[in-house]
Amino acid sequence: MKKILSILALIFTFIQARSQDVDMATGMRSSGKIYVVVAVIGVIFLGLVMYLFSIDRRVKKLEKKD
Amino acid sequence: MKENWWKILASVLVLYSLAGGLLIEVPALPILHESIRNLYYHVPMWFAMILLYLISVIYSIKYLASGKTNHDLIAVECVNTGVIFCFLGLASGMLWANITWGDFWPNDPKLNGSAISTLMYLAYLVLRNSVDEEQKRAKISAVYNIFAFPVMIVLLFILPRMTDSLHPGNGGNPGFGGYDLDNNMKLVFYPAVIGWILMGTWIMNIRYRLRKLENIENSI
C-alpha cells in the first residue's frame, strides 16, 4: 500500500511540474495545504466505501438465510 | 472476495480520481480557472446515470420477452439509482453554472432537456406505484421505460447540439475534447467515469438484491 501511494505521489508531482499563467490556485498548492483537502476527501470516501461493503455483507447474509 | 473485484476496482478508480482531480495539473483557462476540475466530478454523475438507464431499458426489454419478475426488479432499481445520480449531477451542475455562466439555471437547452428527462423518469416511478397488480405494473412500466430512454437521449444529446448551448460540445461550442481536455485531464477523467459507473452499478446491485428479498418475503 505504501509503495503504491509513493508511486502515485511521484506521478502527481511529475505531471504537476509545469508552469501556468492564468489565475489559478497556486498558493494553495505551494503551501501544500491542498494535500490536507485530498486526505480529508479520501478519508470520507474510504469510510463510505467500507460502509457500502458492510451493507453488501449484510445483504449476502440475508440471501444465504433464504 | 473474488467476485468483489469490480467493487474494489470501482473504489480505487474513484479514489484515484478524487485525489488526481485535485492534484494533477489542468489547463489554465479564463472563466473556468480551477473550476475546470469539476469535469472530474460533475460529468461522471451523468455518465453513471445514463449507463444505469441503459441497463434499465435492456432489462425492460428482457422482461417483456421473458416475463421474469427479476428482470423487472433490475429495471426499476436501475432507475431508482439513476435518479440519485441525476440529482447529484443537477446539483453539482448548478453550482458550477453559477460561477461560470453567472446563474444557477441559465436558459440552456441542455439544462431544460435534463429537467424534462428527470421528470420523465420520476413519472416512471410514480406510474409504477399507481398500478397495484404486479404483472400489469411490470408490463406497463417496461413499455413506458422503452419509450422514455430514446426521448432522454434526444433531449440530452441531440436537441442541445442543434441550437446554441453553453455546454461544451453543443451548438457552436467546441467540446472539451476539442482543445482543452488535454492528455493530463483524460488521465483522470476516464478512470473517474469508469469508477463512478461501477459505483452506480454496485449500489444498484445492492438495492436489487434487497428488493428481491422483499419480493420473496411478500409472496410467501
TrEMBL record, chain A:
Transmembrane segments annotated in the record for this chain: 35-55
Record-linked InterPro entries: Put_ccm
Keywords, ordered alphabetically: Membrane, Transmembrane, Transmembrane helix
Keyword Membrane belongs to the record: yes
NCBIfam families in alphabetical order: CcmD_alt_fam
Name of the protein this chain belongs to: CcmD family protein
TrEMBL record, chain B:
Record domain Cytochrome c assembly protein: where: 35-160
UniProt similarity note: Belongs to the CcmC/CycZ/HelC family.
One Pfam entry name: Cytochrom_C_asm
Chief subcellular location: membrane
Keywords attached to this entry: Cytochrome c-type biogenesis, Membrane, Transmembrane, Transmembrane helix
Listed transmembrane segments: 39-61, 73-99, 111-127, 139-159, 187-206
Cited function: Required for the export of heme to the periplasm for the biogenesis of c-type cytochromes.
Protein name per its UniProtKB record: Heme exporter protein C
Highest classification ranks of the organism: Bacteria, Pseudomonadati, Bacteroidota, Sphingobacteriia, Sphingobacteriales
InterPro entries in the record: Cyt_c_assembly, Cyt_c_biogenesis_CcmC, Cyt_c_biogenesis_CcsA/CcmC
Recorded topology in the membrane: Multi-pass membrane protein
Location relative to the cell: Membrane
